[in-house]
Design brief:
Length: 223
């Protein structure tokens, strides 16, 4: 994969993660900084996110409801946006989310080893797509966990604790593109929380002066 492809992937992933189809979350850096604290709005948090060769998958929860976004890399189109999803029983050691929209049923799976898979099945039972995933991140529940960083619920302001400035990244992983910075002791609005099994950190999606990006959990403290 060349550099331009990696940049496109980062932009696609960032767009999908930051687009739960709610007016409360800024959809582009050009939009003004929210005037009301996000704690006053419904809490939206990513449950599962991963990338495959042809798609980017996001399962997220708003209050008690699950939704799916599905981005097609080849066409640069979000095929499924804010579509109702549900958790389905599985006899294997895995968690499965599904969505039925149009004439297809989509399954997003993750097992106990962190392996992910997207499967799309047509109405007649034909398997349209079956691809394994990479760069998976998962939801983090409140309370103790194995991820590094302060653990607090999204939908609240937080204080930047870094020595100088916290880097806002395009994706919730080390090494992803830097889209901005937030100065030490500044306050950011937190809109999402996930854990990255590869680098071991809790990551928070934040909004700071109109820019949306991801910050490590050890660099933020709720206020």
């Amino acid at each position: 994969m060349n550099r331009s492809q990696r940049v496109c992937l980062s932009l696609a992933a960032c767009s999908l993660l930051s687009a739960p189809a709610l007016a409360r979350v800024p959809e582009s850096p050009a939009m003004p900084h929210p005037q009301t604290r996000l704690a006053q709005a419904s809490t939206t948090a990513t449950v599962l996110y991963f990338e495959t060769e042809s798609r980017v998958v996001r399962i997220y929860r708003t209050d008690s409801n699950l939704f799916m976004n599905l981005y097609n890399r080849a066409t640069n189109v979000v095929e499924v946006r804010a579509a109702p999803a549900r958790l389905v029983p599985s006899t294997r050691d895995q968690t499965v989310y599904t969505n039925s929209q149009g004439e297809a049923q989509r399954f997003a799976r993750i097992n106990s080893q962190g392996d992910t898979e997207l499967e799309i099945i047509a109405a007649d039972g034909t398997v349209v797509l079956q691809e394994s995933g990479v760069n998976a991140v998962v939801g983090v529940a409140s309370g103790s966990n194995d991820f590094q960083g302060n653990n607090f619920a999204p939908g609240t302001p937080a204080l930047v604790l870094s020595a100088e400035a916290a880097r806002l990244r395009s994706a919730p992983r080390l090494g992803s593109d830097i889209v901005g910075t937030a100065r030490r002791r500044e306050v950011v609005d937190v809109i999402d929380r996930i854990g990255n099994p590869n680098d071991g950190f809790i990551w928070y999606q934040v909004v700071y002066q109109g820019t949306t990006g991801w910050v490590r959990g050890d660099l933020l403290q709720p206020v």
